[in-house]
Each structure stands twice: as structure tokens, then as C-alpha cells.
Amino acid sequence: MRVVAPFFASVMVAVTGFAAGRQLTGVYTPASTPALKPDEAAAKFSVPEGFEVRIFASEPDAINPVGMSWDERGRLWVAELYEYPLGAKPGQKPRDRIKILEDTDGDGRADKATVFADGFNLLTGILVGNGGVYVGQAPDFLFLEDTDGDDKADKRTVLKTGFGLHDRHELLNGFAWGPDGWLYMTHGVFTYSKVKDPDSPNDDGVKVDAAVARYHPRTKKFEVFADGTSNPWGVDFDREGNAFVSACVIDHLFHVTPGGLYVRQGGIPPNPYSYGLLPSIVDHKHFRAAYAGAQVYQGNMYPENYKGTLMMGNIHQSAINHDTLTRSGSSFRATANKDFLVANDGWFRPVSTQVGPDGALWIMDWYDKYPCYQNANADPEGVDREHGRIWRVVYTGGKKGADVPSRPARDMDLRKANTSELVELLNHANVWHRRVAQRLLGERRDNSAKPALLKLLENGKTLEARLAALWTLHAADMLDEATLDKHASDKEAAVRTWVARLTGERRQPNAESFERLKKLAADRDSTVRLGVATACRQYSSGSLTVNTPVPDDLKGFKAGAILETIVRNSADAKDPLIPFMVWLASEPRLAENPKFALAWLVENGPDTLPLSAQLASKTMRRISDLRSVENMNAVVEFLEKLTPKHTDLALAALDGLIQGAKGSKPPSVTPGPVLERLNYTPQLTERAQRLGALWGDAVATERLLARLLDPGASDAEKIGAIQSARQLKTDPARDALVRVLNSTDKEPLLMETIRALGEVGGDDVAEQILKRWPALAPAARRTAAEVLVSRNLWATALLKAVEQKKVAATDISASAVRSLSQHSSASIRERAVQLVGRYRATDADKLKLIADKRKAALAGTPDLNGGYEVAKKTCFVCHKLHGEGSDVGPDLTGVGRSTLDALLANIIDPNQVIGKGYENVEVETKDGRTVSGRLVEDTDTRVKLLASGPKEEVVAKSDVANLRVSELSVMPEGLEQMPEEDFRNMVWYILNPPQDNRPMTPALRRELIGEEAPQKSAQAR
User: Residue 921: which domain range?
Assistant: First the structure.
């Protein structure tokens, strides 16, 4: 839908100067040409040879279309979103409505429009099924019925409620029927829903933000299918039932597996004990980063090379991007093809792509000169409420202009097909027919269909038909254990995969299910093993949320034995999904009984490397987070059983325990001599010393601190020792760190030491750091300033040094200036204003700054090499650009740098609009230290903040005196204070780095500056 691209400032987006009467720029720039008539727009499309773009419906029959779905007669149902984005005014009837569009004469164009229902307010989802239509209108998920057959809704039922309205372009959306008979939907990251049954006051609700969710039409169960990404708008499934979503701002395409936890644009995943997130499947970028809809082409009209490729609407490019999906173990890699369609019309806003009853790709086009909802917020009357188009991209080969009906027959009505005819339709070459037939059979639940479905499953000529039969048996409640057992040995891996997944969906804790999954866990195909891991997760908890206990009726199901078989057959850990999903399936049971996992690792770990090493590391982190003395003693017993053959396992286990000790001391642990014996390699000895020190062992502590100054220790070993020393918070640790501070010139060691001293504390630390100040490089000075402002006494010492000209005000980083300006001490705040300046400029000052910096950026010839060096020090400490940099804020490759005006606004005024999850969170500890950053982890035991550097701060909950979510972005203001030459070089490097492969032509320069192309004279025209 209308995507918002978080900008350079790690927040959602800035409305660039609209309040001052200036035009919105960059990704928000409106089309500079007037709206075209449908036939004019059709003539401008660029598509591959043999394809034509034809209009099916346009205004006034389709206005502001936001969702579409077909019924059994091939009629198109469209949701019209007039009230976007602010909703209807109080006292006025909302104008959103549902229309039925029909091509009655077979000419490929709708000639009949019927209003099925109206009066909706922010209508964003629609799907036909079960004799009615499912509708998304936050806060409600509705079911509408026409009980008397007049194509008018006369019955309305609220199925679920509690959907959020926080971010109006990220509401519940993209409804689609899944292969398993559930209704799937997508939901954005900055809208927060707690979905409940309206008839059950005791319903605790299901939390949803960035996610693919699903609803079962008979059981009325609602759950999160997979968590993460950003603002997906629509989900689709390939021929084998794999789910895909396109995403905005971050990488543009994800293969979402059931129960997966994926990287997010912002916020915290529902389970902090995953200890990692799954990535996208892309290694490329398309134009900008605003996508809506994802459709795997499975029609019967296009040439064969289009089958299985994926189409996505790119809103800012006014195009349909096209990716090829290639298997990568149990997942996929996506590679870019040439754009499938380019509109050459800035009004084209594709919000959904779907294969229709004709086998063509249908495109729902919002058609608006504005690309983003920020435009609507800045100027609600600027949202176009007069246009909307539904396009069909047909393939005619060499027969240009040939008739291509919009549906196979004018009188088409699959409702009238008998059961055997519907089963036969599962063989159809067009996915639209298969899906409609499958849905109708699932709704009818006619047992007479079972023999034909079993025969099709057994002897179907295509994999698509066989899988459709299996899915239909499941959806119609006709799938039995014998059928699953039989096809656990099927010749097709996709069938075996779904046997595993449907076993998990059924969650029958019987011997048949166990033996079936145990057999499939050893399958030669990784997709099958992934299906088994998915099923085991459902037997373990079935929920993506943290601390969901294993249901009592499933506790006797020996999922561990099945998971062990997967591990043995996936031990090389090369598959991109299996290790992660095995952990998610194991974690709930491990949390209830860690001793079983520890015993298994001792016995089987050496034979199942490297996967067992990954599991060992996560197991130790999870046990550390349980905060149990008994379990930590069990860990010591586990370590005592390790021998030289366990070296790799031991190394991973110690790393996990060290990570688990971050931010808080573990429960009382008595390691005895066990850590001394873990000396099979130098790396293992070093880790054992670090862990022993964290556990309070005196000998290990002494050796750890000695390593800090050991000339024979590598820099990596010293950094590890420094990180452990900062957690000791003892006088000897402080003394050792001060000695490192005064004895090394290596910048990485200096910066890590300064950060460690910030956590350890001490009255004389500021004096020691300031004494070292003249020898510090600029990056180390920024780090030092950020540490010195974290405590009152140190902040006072820093300001005194500024006053005495021992420290230049320009050496103090923008984030440190912000901390001083918001300091709890009024005297420190006042002195900071006098000595280093005011942190936040007024709105008028910001506009002047933007104008001044624009002139500076255009005043000379930029040095891109110099710009790269500046960007490394200022931008890449938070952001990535073409793979280089940090993940504190969004990846700049696709967002925030579309034009000079947009980039300047984002740098100079990063706090205009801030998305939840990108606020600056401040934590004050009980020992008087203040740290800040983006909150990325919040468990029962600790919080983790991520700030520029990148810098990670982990604080035990028991040490937190106060936690405050500020109204400011993680990105500070003040970056414009650098020298003008550096600023100009940096800006132009970010706008157009060499990796973009875009020669700086006059046209590109005008685009980046945000200027119109020069107009030709009337005579020349």
C-alpha cells in the first residue's frame, strides 16, 4: 500500500517543509504531469514483446481501489478507500465501500458496477469466501453476507476486533486464501494490534505488528504465522505452497516459513530467545524501496519462462518489478529480472498484483499523483479521490489487439459445479481455477469427494494437482492418518513436506504422528526436514510469543527424538532455515528441562557439528536467561564432562555463556577446577578465563586482567578481555583498564577501553580520559565524549575542559550534545548551552539551515572519495550503504537519499516523525550512569540498547533505576556542523555513490537536486 520509507535518521519519514508552503520532495514528490485518461495511460506502458496492458475498470467504477478478490462467477470485488488516511470526520457517514465489477459482454472491460456495501471507515482488506466476503476495517475484522441474493450485504458479523489504527498505511491488509484453507493477511510494523474475540471478554488477545497472520474460517482461531519484515502488503504462495511477501524500506522480498522470525524495520520480535532473526532472500535492490503486493505467476496465459517468477508493485518507480526464485536449500534466493512493466506515468501506483480467471496478471492501480501517505497527512485534500484503475496484462504474442476475455465464459458460475467437476478443476493449468475449486470443496466438506481426491493425490499428472488434492482433503476435514502415512514415502519432496506440515497442523500426539515425523526427519530433501521442524515447533508450543508453555496434552509427544534425527541429517548447518527452526522447536521444551539438552550435547555433540555447536551456544544463553542456580550447576556438570573431542562444542558453549552473562551477573556459580581443564586450545583457554572472571573466580579474574596488558595477546583477545572486565565493575578491573588507556595507541582498543570504563565507573575516570584526550583520534574523542556525559561528575569535568580550551566543542559528538541538553542536572544543561551550543534548533532555524546547506552542497565540485571517508565516520556508524556500515538505523541503499532536499531534511531535522521502535530510549542505572539508544531487546532479565558506533549497551533489569522513551529519534541533530567541504562531499557521496552505477548526467543531477527538466520553447515544441 502507501509505503513510508524511513529516512537517514532511523525514523519513519520526514514531511519535508510542507508546513512552510514548499513542495514535498524526494520520495514524496508528486507527479509533475496531469492525470491521463485510461486509454492514454494504457498507451504509455512499457512491457515485454508480445504483452499488452488493457484496462478492465476505471473511474468512476473504481476509485481509490485498495483490495480486490474474485467470486466463483469471475466477478471482481473491489474495496474503495475514500477515507484514507484520516478517516471520516465526526458526524459524517464514511464513504469507503465494496463494489462488484462485472464484464457482462465479454469484451474484457467491466460494464456493470454494483455497490455491495458502503459506510465503511478505513476499509483495507477484502476476500470472497464461505458465501460472503471477509472485510478488514480496523479495529474490526468482519464477515458480510447477502442472504437474499440481491448483491447487497444485509448481514454483518464482527469476527475479531482489536486491530490497531496507529499507522494508516499499515493496517490489516492483503487477504488471501492459503493452501491450508486458512485466510492469510499482512500487517505493518508501526501499527500495534491485540486481536481478540469480540464475544469473549476473557480473551487475552494476539499481539500483531510486522507479520503475516492467519484466521481459520471454521474454528475462528487467529494467530501470527510469521513475524517480521516491515510493511508487507499482500502474501502469495508458489506451486509448492511456500509463502512470499514483499517488504518496504528494508530488503524487498522474503520467503516466510511457518513460525519464522524475520529481520524487522523496527521494534522487538515477540520471542527474544530466538537469539537471531532470519534474513531476506535478495542480494539486489530495485528502484527505491516502496513495494505492494507479491504474486508468483502461475497462470496459463504467459510463456513458460514466466512460470514461478514473482511480480511486485513498486509504488515510487510506478512499475512492476520482476524477480526469479531459485532454490537455496529449504529456502530461496531471488535474482532481478528486467522490470516486467514500467508505466511511464507518475500517477501509476500499483498496490496489488494477482492472477485472474483469464490467466493474466491483474494490477490494482490506486492512481494518484502522490506516492506516500505523508502527502495525505500534510495536505489531506491533496489525496486524489477521483481516480482508480484495474489493469490486465495480457499476452497475445504476435496477434496484437486480439480478443482476450476477462473470464473463460460470460455465464461462468463455479457455484453450480458439482463436486466431481470441482475436483476435476484441481487439474486446471490456471492457479485461479485450482484455488477457487479448492476453496469451494473445503467449504462444502462433501465426503463424496474423498475417493476422487485420493485418486488425484495418488495419480495426478502434475504436482500442482496432487498438492491441491492433499490441501483440499485437509481443509475439508477428510485427511486421515493412513493417507498421511502412505504419502510420507511419496516420490515428490513437496508432497512429503506437506505430509510433515499437515501432521503439525493437526497436532495429534499419537504414535502414528511420531513415527511419521521421525521417518521424515531423515529425509534426503532439506525442504522435508524443514517441514518436520515446523511441525515439531507446533507440537512444542505453536506460538511465536515468548514463554509459551508446552500444552499439557502434548508433553508426552517426544519431539526431541524427532529433532535429533533432523540434526543428524542436517549437521553441516548449511541450510538457511533448518538450524533456526530446530532451535525454535527445541527452546520451549529446553526451558522446561535443560538437563535433557545438556546430556544430549555431551553424547551427540561431536558427531553433529557444526549444527550442534550453534545449538550449544543458544542453549547456554537460554539457561543463563532462566536465572536458576540449579540449572547453572547443571551447566558446570556439563562442562566437567567435556573432553578434547568436544573442543568445538566447548568453544560454542563458552561463547553462549559469556553472551548470557552480559548485563547481569549469573546466579551463584561454583565452577571449581572445571574451567582450568578447558585448555585444549588457546582460544578455549581464553574463553574459559573470561567466563571464570564473570563467574567470580579469583584466579581467572587475575589472568583475565593480565591478558589486557599481555604483549603476546592478539587485539581480538584483548577486546574480549576488555568486554569481560567492564562487567566485573571492580577496582582491579578499573585499574587494569586505565593502564590499557594509557598504554595503547590502537584506536579499536582505546574505544573499547573507554566504553568499558564508562560502565565500570570511578571518580578519577574522567580525569584519566581527559588527560589522554590530545592523543585521541576523532572517532575515539566522540566515544570519549559519549562516555563522559553518562555520569554527572564526568559531564562536569568535560564541560570544564571545554571551558579551559582543553577540549574543542566541535570534538563533542552530536549524540553527546543531545545528552547534555537533556541532562537531569539544570546546571549542566545551562553550562552546556553556553559552552557547546543549543542542541535543537527552532523550526525557522532548521529551514534556514537546510537552505544554507543546500547552497553549500551546490557551491563546489564534490570529492566522492573524501565523501566516502566522511560517511564512514558519520553515517556508517549507524547505517549501511551497499553492504558497508552498521544496523542501528535503516539501510540507506534503498531509502532516505532520493534527492538533495530529502536528504538535507533528514539530516538536519531527524525528529519530525518518529516510528515506534526508533525512539531514543534512555536508561539510568542505580550507580548513576545514563546510557541511550534504540531498544532492541527487552527480556525478564535485561534490556539491550543499540547506538551509533555501533555500540551495544546491555543492562540488567535489576540495575535499572529508570527507563524513559524519549520523543526524539535515535539519530541526533547537529551533523551539519562539520566543515562545509566535508558536508558537501558526504552528501553527494550518499546521494550517488559509485556503487549505484549511475553516471552523473545532467538529467540525474537535476533529479537529485529536485529540479524539473528545462522546458522546450514553444517554437521547438
Answer: 863-1009
Q: How many CB atoms lie within 10 A of CB 777?
A: 13
- Residue 33's Cα: distance from chain center in Å? 34
Residues 105 and 146 in one domain: yes
Nearest CA to 262 among 310, 224, 315? 224
Sign of CA dihedral 821, 824, 826, 831: negative
Q: Which of 612, 704, 602 is nearest to 658 (CA)?
A: 704
18: left (phi over 0), alpha (psi -120 to 50) or beta: alpha
- The strand pair at 222-229 and 261-264 is best described as parallel
> Residue 930 sits in a domain of what CATH number?
2.30.30.100
Same domain, 878 and 989: yes
How much is the pTM?
0.89
SS3 readout for 229-289:
ECCCCCEEECCCCCEEEECCCCCCEEEECCCCEEEECCCCCCCHHHCCCECCCECCCCCCC
Dump strand ranges (E) for 85-172. 96-102, 112-120, 125-129, 132-137, 140-145, 155-161
Total Cβ atoms within 10 A of residue 773:
18
3-state secondary structure of 223: strand
| Strand 173-177 with 183-187, pairing | antiparallel
Quick: pLDDT tens for 233-283. Answer: 999 999 999 999 999 888 999 999 999 999 998 888 999 999 999 999 998
Q: What distances in angstroms separate CA 566 from CA 571, 572, 679, 773, one per listed residue? A: 8, 11, 31, 55
State the amino acid at position 95 in one-letter form: R
Percentages (nearest 5) of helix, strand, coil residues in the chain: 40, 20, 40
Residue (of 886, 879, 931, 883) closest to 910 by Cα position: 879
Per residue in 156-197, pLDDT (tens digit) is 999 999 999 988 888 999 999 999 999 999 999 989 999 999
Q: Check whether residue 887 and residue 810 sit in a common domain.
A: no
Higher-confidence residue of 861 and 174: namely 174
Distance of alpha carbon 626 from alpha carbon 289, whole angstroms: 40
Cβ-Cβ contacts under 8 Å for 349 (sequence gap 6 or more): 2, 313, 315, 318, 365, 366, 367, 368, 371
User: Which cell goes with 565?
Assistant: 534425527
What residues have CB less than 8 Å from 179, skipping those under 6 apart? 237, 241, 438, 467, 471
- The total number of structural domains that make up the chain: 3
Asked if 947 contacts 854 with a C-beta cutoff of 8 angstroms, the reply is no
What is the β-pairing status of strands 206-208 and 173-177? unpaired
Q: Is the dihedral of CA 863, 891, 376, 965 positive or negative?
A: negative
